[in-house]
Specification:
By secondary structure, this protein is mainly α. The chain is built from 22 helices and no strands. 57% of the residues lie in helices and 0% in strands.
Length: 493
């Protein structure tokens, strides 16, 4: 008997990886699989792109799953198609129609909750998840999503109580145990998080979401070697006796990319982010991180589409809007850049970096909408000085803010004297500001505020509802932007 089948390997990972506290966001939900098909573990389309999660039960004795009627299935498929393009409003409309056409459309309620969560309609999302479990009480994707959203909304104790009740009713469910592990990790109770994830793997040794919960908890607690060890088991395996559990798991690819990035392994991190997006184009964090690498190398042409997709799937993502504004500036799309950066200003008044980026926009762009050249230069000086106030120079940092202010004042003097700004120094368009990415999490023992850790994978609706035989359980759900935005240190312009 191989270790993979006996469960011994799962226990080995957990023994090697017992642990401490955590501060990383939860996993993200994906929509349920399409109605007319049996949900495959990857819920992938013919080209390998995953359009939804698998919702097969992780324990025995799953309850009866109602079958969608024809009208509801048609609307559900339309919702999935809208989601695939990032049209969340369209997906919400179609999933709602599916629930109206069939009051027993449990997967439509779950997928509606996924989209509502991404649209930041938290109360509606919770209601949709709950309704899915009213129809099918042991529908694991909705149970997982509901509990983790409660925890992320500051109601972790309520989430634990809810999951304990579900565990009593579903003692063989690996998904419920994994959800308890995720919630405990969000609470910062790493020891309990690891214990519940172990419990899930005892129930189902091949349950990849439990292993991802383990890896995510290690990442939050800054145990990066253990996180990588667990991710290797999921993606690569440990030889013929222990093959990879889920080599096409996009969330695992994303998390490994974040760790490799933190370790300074740029080529490997880029490869993981690219693979994650090939599998799940809706993973917002992978888009933001890959686009940041592109902007660092001055490749705004390829960065902009990634970031445009990121804001379609998560319009509240401050870092995506911030970097998209800088990408548009580099592409000469001044009006679009101004729109994005002004949105960031309104969304997060405490983010110093937006003032630096606005300073670059007003200093180096021609014809800023609503401003004369002289007014634009005044605004550039004001924004750069505001940046200095909010983020004083740090010893050893490559901060060029004073140089930029000097250049702006020279340009202003020339304009006021009636001349044109022809100096190469003042007119040259700078390269991208250092793109913002999620900040590294603080060490578990540090007294400094914890910065953002690896995001949970973004939500995708369940692929069209499965036949009654296919039940539910591998969802985690959408994630929000990093807890603390990484503040860029200007160097190159």
């Amino acid at each position: 008997m191989t270790l993979a089948r006996s469960g011994s390997f799962a226990l080995a990972v957990l023994a090697f990886a017992s642990g401490c506290a955590s501060n990383q966001p939860p996993p993200a939900a994906a929509p349920a699989p399409p109605p007319a098909e049996e949900a495959a573990p990857s819920a992938a389309t013919g080209n390998g792109v995953q359009s939804g999660i698998s919702d097969r039960p992780t324990g025995e004795g799953a309850s009866q799953r109602p079958t969608l009627n024809a009208s509801a299935q048609q609307a559900y498929n339309a919702g999935m198609n809208a989601f695939k393009t990032g049209d969340l409003a369209g997906a919400r409309t179609q999933f709602t129609r599916a629930t109206q056409a069939d009051s027993k459309a449990y997967q439509a309620y779950y997928s509606l909750g996924v989209v509502q969560e991404r649209l930041n309609e938290i109360s509606n999302a919770l209601s949709s998840y709950r309704q899915a479990t009213v129809i099918v009480p042991d529908y694991e994707p909705a149970i997982f999503a509901y509990a983790v959203l409660l925890a992320r909304s500051g109601k972790a104790d309520q989430a634990v109580d809810y999951l304990n009740g579900r565990a009593t009713a579903m003692p063989k469910s690996a998904a419920v145990s994994a959800a308890l592990g995720e919630v405990k990790s969000i609470q910062g109770d790493s020891a309990s998080a690891q214990r519940y994830a172990q419990e899930a793997l005892k129930k189902n040794p091949d349950y990849a979401p439990a292993m991802i919960a383990l890896a995510r908890d290690h990442y939050r607690a800054r145990r990066l070697d253990l996180a990588l060890y667990t991710l290797r088991a999921i993606l690569d395996g440990y030889g013929p006796e222990n093959p990879p559990r889920d080599k096409n798991n996009a969330e695992a690819r994303l998390l490994r990319g974040l760790i490799l990035k933190e370790q300074g392994n740029r080529p490997a991190a880029i490869d993981e982010f690219q693979k994650a997006l090939q599998l799940r184009p809706d993973l917002v964090e992978a888009r933001v991180q890959l686009a940041a690498y592109m902007l660092e190398s001055g490749n705004a042409t390829d960065a902009a589409p990634l970031l445009e997709g990121a804001v379609r799937y998560d319009n509240n993502n401050v870092l995506a809007h911030l970097n998209l504004g800088d990408a548009y500036r580099l592409l000469g799309k001044t009006g679009e850049a101004k729109r994005e950066l002004e949105w960031v200003q309104k969304a997060d008044a405490q983010l110093a970096q937006v003032h630096y980026d606005l300073g670059l926009l007003y200093l180096f762009s021609d014809n800023v909408p609503g401003s004369t050249p002289s007014q634009a230069t005044d605004t550039a000086i004001s924004e750069l000085e505001q940046y200095k106030k909010m983020r004083p120079r740090q010893a050893g940092s490559n901060d060029d803010t004073d140089e930029l202010i000097t250049r702006a004042k020279a340009k202003k003097a020339m304009l006021d004297a009636g001349g044109s700004d022809t100096s190469g120094d003042a007119a040259a368009t700078p390269a991208a500001a250092k793109p913002a990415t999620g900040a590294k999490p603080a060490a578990a023992t540090s007294s400094a505020p914890a910065a953002s850790s690896a995001p949970a994978a973004s939500a995708a609706p369940a692929a069209a509802p499965a036949k009654p035989a296919a039940g539910g359980a591998s969802a985690a759900f959408p994630d929000e932007p990093p807890a603390a935005a990484a503040k860029k240190t200007p160097g190159k312009k």
